[in-house]
Structures are given as C-alpha cells and as structure tokens.
Design a protein that fits this description.
The protein has 335 residues and is α+β, with helices and mostly antiparallel strands. It has two domains: 179 residues, Fructose-1,6-Bisphosphatase, subunit A, domain 1 (Fructose-1,6-Bisphosphatase, Chain A, domain 1); 131 residues, 3-Layer(aba) Sandwich (D-Maltodextrin-Binding Protein, domain 2). The protein is built from eight helices and 17 strands. The strands form four sheets. An eight-stranded mixed beta sheet has the order 4-3-5-6-7-8-9-10, with helices on both faces. Strands 12-11-13-17-15 form a five-stranded mixed beta sheet, sandwiched between helices. A two-stranded antiparallel sheet has the order 1-2. Helix 5 crosses helix 8. It binds 6-O-phosphono-beta-D-fructofuranose. The site of 6-O-phosphono-beta-D-fructofuranose has 9 residues, from loops. Its cofactor is Mg(2+). This is Fructose-1,6-bisphosphatase class 1. It catalyses: beta-D-fructose 1,6-bisphosphate + H2O = beta-D-fructose 6-phosphate + phosphate. It is an enzyme of class 3 (hydrolase). Pathway: Carbohydrate biosynthesis.
Length: 335
C-alpha cells in the first residue's frame, strides 16, 4: 500500500510557508464547520440568525457561526493582513506585518443547510504589499489574476478540499478517523467538451439574448445546431455545481439577468467568481462574464457582483462568441 499524503505534507512542497500557514488555519476552521454540519439540527444550527448580510440576504445561523470561526482564526494568524467576507459589510484588518489577504464566502449555498444538502466554504488568497499599515478595502481590490491561492472546502456526503496555488489543482478528502485531509488527486483536469450544463432556468425571461439563444440551442439537443443532447443539473449551491464540473465536466452559468434592476448577476467577484475561476482555469477549463475573462476584471468594490460562465472551455468560448456576434456586453450594454 502506498503511503498517503496529508495536506500538511502537500503544503510543505507546494506552498510558501506563509500560504501553508493560512491554508492550515482555513483547514482547521473547515473541520470545525464540518463537525457542526454533521451534528445538524442537534447542534442548534438550523434556521435564521435574524439578521441580513450586506447583500440584503437573510443570514442563517451557520452562516454567522462559520464566518466567526474563519474570521477569528485568520486574524490571529500573523501572516494574515486582512480578511473580507460575504457576511461582513466592511473588510477586517488583521496583522499589519502580514503578507496575505484572505477573502471568503463562509458558507456558500446556505439555503441548503436546513434541507441537509451540500454547502461549502470558498476562499481566495491575495498578496498584501503595505506592511506596517492597516489593510483597507482598496488593498483587496486586485484582479483575480493576482491570486496566490484559492479553493473550496465542500461539506457533502464527505468533506473535501480543492485547492490551487497556480500550478494545477489538488483535491483532498477529509478522513474522520485521523481528522486530516488526505490527497486523492494531485492534478485535477476537466474536459474541454461536455454535454452537461447548470443554470437556473426559471430566470430565462430575464436573460440577455446570447444566453437565451445558447440555452435554446442546448435544449434542442441533437435536433438543433449543436447536434447532440445535453443534460441539465442545478444544485443551487455554486460550490456543488463547480465541484461536479471538476469531477465529471460541465458548464456552470449564473449570467446577467434583468430580474433585479441594478444587480449585474448574482454571484460575487471577490469571494465566489475569482476563486472558482482560478480553480477551473488551473484544471484546464475557462471562465468569463460573457465577454471578458473573469480574472482580468479590475474590481471596484469588495461585494461586487458579476455574471459567471465557467467550465468546459469549448462551451465557454461558444458563449463568448454568441455575445460577440450579438454585439452585447456582459452587462447588457450594446458594443
Ligand atoms: O451565493 C449565491 C448562490 O447560493 C450560489 O451558490 C448558487 O449558485 C446560487 O446562489 C443559487 O441561486 P438560485 O437561488 O437563483 O438558484
């Protein structure tokens, strides 16, 4: 039997000591979150916390608990200069001499908690250059291209971690016996082609023409221009849909829609779209807002929303081509 590689061993050879230290902190917090999820209703974590996050969404009890666990752990890590979270209105400065910033969505897909379905923690690690000064929001507003590390912990039928430091994607499975993450794949790859797509089709009438056309072509299957049948899957937790794509391929979309005026899509650039784009690209996939590569977009605000199309390269390129032909920008403006 070959020896198993633990996360700690993997980090020794694949990450700087600073990145390894942040990853260890994130992994420790993820184990605490995973244990709470295991206890479920018995831990008193189901239901609403009573407040709203900055997006105006009702906060679940476990959203708040997970956020506090991650925040408290990270601000005590000397390498962490600051933290930004989906659940915090403002960024939280940490250690002035730290070299890394961390953004996270503590519990993506939290509407799944009460129904005992998959949720997860998404994280992105950025460089911090202003040592000696307190980190502020503008320090975080870096392109996804600058990310030094990113990934997610998924709490499903088992707890897993997918992570990239810019040289491929590694996947780990949490072993409840030894309480450690064990490497199961050190080079996750996704196929350029797929016949499976994920989108919330109930928003159809609010989509822009290129997305309407794209989905219409997929629904026509082998009777239409794409000449093959497509299957659809939607978990309503980006983390689970992206994880499925990493395991068996596919394309995931939360495109721009006109449902709520002024909202350019639903997903957040800094702690959902960027980290997932980094993982997907490092596994051989692609990621766009419909027009631009997501990791090339200069952020303007920590809670900025962005349309997302990611996964199998061939499909992502096809969606981009449809936007180009229609002369439509990702935010619905005409070129
Ligand atoms: O963070 C937003 C999110 O929960 C994503 O994880 C998920 O893909 C999406 O919202 C689900 O949206 P909808 O409720 O429209 O299906």
């Amino acid at each position: 039997m070959t020896a198993q590689t633990t996360l700690a061993q993997y980090l020794e050879s694949h990450a700087t000591p600073e990145l390894a230290s942040i990853m260890t902190t994130l992994a420790t917090a993820s184990v605490a979150i995973s244990h709470l999820l295991d206890k479920g209703a018995l831990a008193g974590i189901h239901g609403e916390a009573g407040g709203q996050n900055v997006q105006g969404e009702a906060q679940k009890k476990l959203d708040v608990i997970s956020n506090d666990l991650l925040l408290n752990a990270l601000i005590h890590n000397p390498n962490c200069a600051g933290v930004a979270s989906e659940e915090l209105d403002e960024i939280s400065p940490a250690n002035d001499d730290g070299t890394l910033l961390v953004t996270f969505d503590p519990l993506d897909g939290s509407s799944n908690i009460d129904i005992n379905m998959t949720v997860g923690t998404i994280f992105s690690i950025l460089p911090y250059h202003n040592q000696g000064q307190k980190a502020c929001e503008s320090d975080f507003l870096q392109k996804g291209e600058n990310q030094l590390g990113a990934g997610y912990f998924i709490y499903g039928t088992s707890t897993m971690l997918a992570v990239t430091f810019g040289a491929g994607v590694a996947m780990f499975s949490f072993d409840p016996m030894t309480q450690t993450y064990i490497l199961i794949n050190d080079n996750v790859r996704i196929s350029e082609q797929t016949a499976e797509y994920a989108i919330n089709a109930s928003n159809r009438r609010y989509w822009l023409p290129p997305i309407q056309q794209y989905i219409e072509e997929l629904v026509q299957g082998d009777t239409g221009i794409r000449q093959k049948d497509y299957n659809t899957r939607w978990v309503a937790a980006m983390i689970a849909d992206v994880h499925r794509i990493l395991i068996r391929g596919g394309v995931f979309m939360y495109p721009y829609d006109t449902k709520i005026a002024g909202k350019a899509g639903k997903l957040r650039l800094m702690y959902e779209a960027n980290p997932m784009s980094f993982v997907i690209e490092q596994a051989g996939g692609a990621s766009t807002d419909g027009v631009e590569r997501i990791m090339d977009i200069a952020p303007t605000a920590i809670h900025q929303r962005i349309p997302v199309v990611l996964g199998a390269k061939e499909e992502v390129d096809y969606v981009k081509a449809l936007h180009e032909t229609a002369g439509i920008l990702a935010n619905g403006d005409r070129v």
